[in-house]
Amino acid sequence: MKALCHRNVFSSLLSISYLLKTISCSPISLLEQRATTIAPVIDINFPDPAILQDSDNTWYAFATDGNGKNVQVAHALSPSGPWTVLPNDLLPTPGNWSNKQNVWAPDVRKIGSTYVLYYSATDAVQTAQHCVGTATSNTILGPYTAAETPLACNLSIGGAIDSSGFTDTDGTHYVVYKVDGNSIGHGGSCGNAVAPIVPTPLMLQQLASDGVTAVGNPIELLDRDGGDGPLIEAPNLILVDGVYILFFSSNCYTTPLYDVSYATASSLKGPFTKSKAPLIITGNPFNITTPGGAQATVDGKNLVFHANCGAGRCMFERAIEISGTSVSIS
């Protein structure tokens, strides 16, 4: 593996670990040997988890296709579990714009009395790229009925993945997603480490009151820079005490540099400032490998994310604390 320098690699003692990785191309460091050991709360393949508390206070988690389902779902009485994986497939039939395959990173929001599912699937014609779609249901466990057309699908710039809903204080609904530029990259790590590097921006799309109809054009919130490796992805937006916090992952999910990072802004549309170091990376602060795909609870108190496990990518959960523009995890 050709290693990539991490963002602000000299900015803190923590970054010594990243520098050692970059020099040695090894996922093991002295810091990792002292990392806290944690166990998954869902110990099956359950990637790109999203989390929602329903009106009856039950918590639900949703995940990328796997285990014979397009959209996996589990429930619990608290974010820390214990979690029970349910037999339901929330989206048995993805939208007709898709080839019905590779349903990734689902997210569910309740808008009025309707549950809205955001997801991505491969395009019916250009199957190397994904588009973001929507589906709706009167119950949280579905089945969800997919819209006939995608919500975001600019295939010329790579398509779209990793959609996540957000509602601002004025009640306006949005979705954030990634332009999947590395799907049309020129090779190397995650297809986008060979120049010219293709942008992979995180976008904000305003929605109508139904939560499924786009209003206006999307705007860019954040893009990769040299320290992010080939991409950024998996955006999730929350608002805590007047600060907009955009969680995301950077680098390639096949390498130990994949992470959970965040950026902050005082305005919904930015500018967003990236944190000096990742919140979670291989071996720091937990003894896990390639963490990513994180989503926070809307109150900013808990974070779910995946990391490598024997079954594939299992779901982990930890408490987080937000103070101004700083996020910590325990």
TrEMBL record:
Q: Which N-terminal stretch is annotated as signal sequence? A: 1-25
Which residue positions hold the site described Important for catalytic activity, responsible for pKa modulation of the active site Glu and correct orientation of both the proton donor and substrate?
Answer: 162
What's in the keyword line of the UniProt record?
Glycosidase, Hydrolase, Signal
- Gene3D superfamilies assigned to the protein according to its UniProt record, in alphabetical order: Glycosyl hydrolase domain, family 43
- Record-linked Pfam families: Glyco_hydro_43
GO MF: hydrolase activity, hydrolyzing O-glycosyl compounds
Biological process according to GO = carbohydrate metabolic process
Q: Which residues form the active site?
A: 48, 233
Q: Which family does it belong to?
A: Belongs to the glycosyl hydrolase 43 family.
Q: Which PANTHER family match?
A: BETA-XYLOSIDASE, ENDO-ARABINASE
Q: What is this protein called?
A: Glycoside hydrolase family 43 protein
